[in-house]
Amino acid sequence: MTEVAPLVTSETVNVKKIDFSRDALAFVKTQAHDAGLSEVRESGYAAFESLPFPTRKTEEWKYTSLHALTQQDYNQAAQNFDLEDASDLYVIEDLDAYRLVFVNGVFVEELSDSISQAGIELTTFSQANDKQRDLIAEYIGNIAETRRNLFTALNNAAVEEGVLLHVSKNIQLEKPLQIVHIVSQQEQASTAFGRCLLVLESLAEATVIEQFVSTNESQNLLLNQTTEIKIGDGAKLNHYRLHTEDETSLHFGGVYVDLNRDSQFESYQVALGGKIKRFDVLVNHNQAGSHCEMKGVYLPKNDQHVDIHSYIEHISANCTTDETYRGIMADRSKAVFNGRIHIHPDAQKSYANLSNKNLLLSNKAQINSKPELEIYADDVRCAHGVTVAQLDDKACFYLQSRGISRPEAEIMLSFAFINELLESIPLEPLRKNLRPLLAQQFSSNQDLTQHILDEDSGVHSEEGAS
Amino acid sequence: MLTIKNLQAKVEEKDILKGLSLDVKPGEIHAIMGPNGAGKSTLGNVLSGREGYTVTGGEVLFNGKNILELDAEERAREGLFLAFQYPVEIPGVSNLEFLKASMDAIRLHRGEEAMDSMTFLKLAREKCKAVNLDQNFLKRGVNEGFSGGEKKRNEILQMMMLEPKLCILDETDSGLDIDALQVVAEGVNSQRSPDRSFIIVTHYQRLLDYIVPDFVHVLADGKIVKSGGKELALELEEKGYSWIENGEA
Questions:
Q1: What is the tally of structural domains in chain B?
Q2: What residues in B contact A404, CB-CB < 8 Å?
Q3: Phi first, then psi: what are they for A273, rounded to 5°?
Q4: pTM assigned to the model
Q5: What is the CATH number of the domain that holds B185?
Q6: How far is A294 from chain B (nearest CA, A)?
């Protein structure tokens, strides 16, 4: 079933502006791939070829420079990483989950669980049986949209390995599915691809965590990861996308979601900064009554960059969207948030709310936030709000007047800014693991973070003072 | 305890305090009354070290230390406490987390060990009860969504937890109904001791029915213009501040 596409001479992808397309496509052709994926690969190839390389004048990439990409040649990633220490990078304490682990884009069976639950098809593309291959062929590339994002087109063109989760009608996935992507330092700059396909049939339910981590060293691997999600009538997906890689990491990602009648998509996104980190989330309210709830935090510092674009398409009537993103930018870091809500003419009785609040911790930090509402129906309720602020002097003084040092007061107030969103994460072990991880972003000095992490004394404590 | 000599301070180039002197001994309660704009709140802010208030002259000794040289947090650790007129709301920081951070900082400064969580929690619940706040308030964000009265009671709760040497109550009675006023007054009275002093800044004599001061001072145009015993407050209530400002006294 496997065929090898025609080889081209160079095995190196020379990612330079001028010949970026040609070399990236040449790279795609070097891959061995599954015949069932030919169609998506070819259309991805064509889309990629037709799209111009983004520049500062490309609206979707206005504030995210791809300059860093053009500084070196890229090789296909090698799996050169000591697997023995891997679990330290991704284990979420007390979380009972089905786990699939990829290292530098390659599936690692010995770190992964094999799952058998009736009504569930869960496999990697490379291990898919005939039935599963049919499912992959049916959905892949049909949800992801390539016209806005060159890198999704490239992902289509390069698709080879990935994860399929198919949940049959009325079935609940018994445990959360944790899909781990580890990247590690390569001898030379490299690139790797990831793909995920989540299909929930009518009234199915699942929780999926997409987790991106790296080894604790300088990174030179560009991970391009696309996720497609189809949520059937009345079905519900809890989705997490956690980016906690090293600050030198390079990531291009896309999450594309199709919602059927009365379905629910709840997504929680956490992103530390990277050298370039960009992900798009596109949600299509294709049928009436669907609900989308998205919450995200981004926390770049030093010279990091993070860029989140969200697109919500209200195509049908009676759908709801609630979108809340909060960012804290420190040092010289930059963040981009673009939130677009598009109400189509037939989408009467839509409700959509977008809130984006930003905290700048330094005079040199930057946020470019752009909410966009485009409304073509007349009976809708839509609102958006963006704020950019610095730490509140009054609140800081209040804490200091009670003996708390200025540095600790600043950390408490910064953490407070995202605390509300963290608290709303329904998966308790994840919440508990994220708190120290995110607190660490504000200071590595434990004396300064001890009180925000004290489990007995927080708004975060279930038992607290009862 | 506290000696203020000829204190002068300005806010945004405007002179507010113009030579204020005051001597507070351990265990004493001093009430400071005066018309709007006299500098009452400025006094509290200057003493607690708020940024934006520039001291242009005079000195403030707190237990022999010149506190004007200290940061706000250092003054608090030395035992100075300001109950705010308008306590700020801080969503996302729980009252408990805030109190623990505060207690730990102050105890560390005193050379005491940090209180263990269980003892701390027990104490916090006890004090909650004392100021008639539901224990749920401990879990909530600092002052978040609290009513005016609840915010003031939360200030008194903090005061009880931190056991300061000198408490400055900045118009703690403003906006309180009579029941809340009594709760606040009882809280303050329970904290009276031979080595703890209070400065009570207020517009109205009403609070002084419940917290009986040793001294009453009238602050007008940045200076103390008249001092007396508790009966002075009654006299002010009857005759108004113009009685003093007009030099009729």
A1: 1
A2: 73, 98, 101-102, 105
A3: -80, 165
A4: 0.89
A5: 3.40.50.300
A6: 19
